[in-house]
Amino acid sequence: MGRSSLAGCAFEPDTASTFGHMPLLNLGVIAGVFIAASLASEFKLRIPKQPLRYIQSMGGGTLMGYGVGLALGCTVGAFFSAVASLALNGWVFPGALAVGAYVGVKVLNRIP
Predict the structure, then answer these.
(1) CB neighbour class for 77 (10 Å; exposed up to 12, middle 13-18, buried from 19)
(2) Distance between CA atoms of residues 16 and 24, nearest Å
(3) Distance in angstroms (rounded) separating the CA atoms of residues 71 and 12
(4) Helix runs in the chain, H state only
(5) What average pLDDT does the structure give for the chain?
(6) What is the pLDDT of residue 36?
């Protein structure tokens, strides 16, 4: 039946609502991040001066979206729920996450 049969992965327009839990959760996360960044004096709107940055941003967003589609979940499900269930992927995830973050930082440092 595919991914659409998994709870939390299927978008059902018949039952979707503008004021449902998912849109409000997304808005809450965005508002929380804005408040936290503002309180830490870290919020600043930035407009890239190099057109290459727009291409890099779109490429990175596309890869992140593809990765989320492959993972069928988020870090909560990939780590916390999996470790509590004694699943092997929960123990492999933090190592893979650390390696990916390390490689990503090294790649970003090489880009002018």
Answers:
(1) middle
(2) 12
(3) 20
(4) 21-39, 51-71, 75, 82-84, 88-110
(5) 80
(6) 95
Q: Quote the tokens at residue 19.
A: 């004021």
Domain that holds residue 99: 50-112
Q: Tell me the Ramachandran region of residue 58: left when phi exceeds 0, alpha when psi lies from -120 to 50, beta otherwise.
A: alpha
**Domain total in the chain:** 2
Examine the domain organization and report whether 55 and 99 are in the same domain. Answer: yes
Residue 5 three-state SS: helix
| Token couple for 107 | 């790649």
* Residue 23: how many other CB atoms lie within 10 Å: 12
Residues 36, 54, single domain; the answer is no
> In this predicted model, what pLDDT tens digit does every residue of 84-106 receive, in sequence order?
888 888 888 888 889 988 998 99
Question: For residue 20, which of 35, 8, 5, 6 has the smallest C-alpha distance?
Answer: 8
pLDDT-derived band of residue 108, with 50, 70 and 90 as boundaries?
Answer: confident
Q: Residue 6: helix, strand or coil by DSSP?
A: coil
Report percent pLDDT > 90 for the chain.
Answer: 18
